[in-house]
Amino acid sequence: MQLIRCTPDYSESILEILNEAIVNSTALYDYSPRSLDSMKSWFDIKMKNNYPVIGLVDDQNDLVAFGTYGSFRAWPAYKYTIEHSLYVHHQHRGKGYGKIILAEIIKAATAADYHNIIAGIDAQNIVSKKLHEEFGFTLAGTIRQAGYKLGRWLDLDFYQLILPTPDVPLEG
Predict the structure, then answer these.
(1) pLDDT of residue 115
(2) Residue 50 parent element (H or E)
């Protein structure tokens, strides 16, 4: 396995992973699979804001997992807080690939001088919550019945990891 920075060339592989999660799980509170066209604007935003898309590829260069982050909220005072996401291909779950991606997300966020990483996790996703807790994330709160999917109300847990960066935070 090798860590990479995904480029738009990986759009189809990312879509395969995302769309499987949309259709078959509550990992994404979305109903419809995304289109290949939607990936152009997705990558444009990532590149414009210097948000990495971290991938893990196998020996055949097939994407088995990826993670990224983006802004948490749009107002300037939130500039040190990001929200991340990570997804593992359904055929490769349970192999420790999520740990590899999460470690890289934390490393990249620290290097970029972010202070707080937020994870929005479906309250019933015990595997993801345990993974984040292993890395020091703590439960910040639960929004009850935040979404409705697969015939039921979904609670959303917010986890956070506070980083020791930046050394000198600035306003403005």
Answers:
(1) 97
(2) none
